[in-house]
């Protein structure tokens, strides 16, 4: 019989953590956007800063996706390797004598 681990493939994120992350993102984006709107500068400078803010936001989402994908990739391959090792250990009998 093969003993498999019962660890979930992806750890669950709590609702509170998700809400806290979403609120933190929203508050920070609105705060920086408000700061850009009320800056005493020309419209082109304001537009440049707004484009910069949008670029930072989109690249942060892209980076988070890449980190998540890499973590998923290593987790799945690690579980496959562990399953193979478990199977080999379960099938191995150290007291078996091979007769020719």
Please give a structural write-up:
With 100 residues, this protein is an all-alpha fold. The protein is 72% helix and 0% strand. Helix 1 (15-37) packs antiparallel against helix 2 (43-91). The longest helix is centred in the last third of the chain and has 49 residues, at 43-91. The model has no long low-confidence stretch (mean pLDDT 85).
Sequence of secondary-structure elements: HH
Largest sheet features: none
Shape: rod-shaped
Spatial separation of the terminal alpha carbons: 27 Å
SS summary, helix count = 2
How many β-strand runs? 0
- Gyration radius (Cα, Å) is 26 Å
Write the layout of secondary structure elements.
Blueprint: H1 15-37, H2 43-91
Can you give me a brief rundown of this structure?
By secondary structure, this protein is mainly alpha-helical. 72% of the residues lie in helices and 0% in strands.
Q: Main traits of this protein?
A:
single chain; 100 residues; mainly alpha; 2 helices; 72% helix; 0% strand
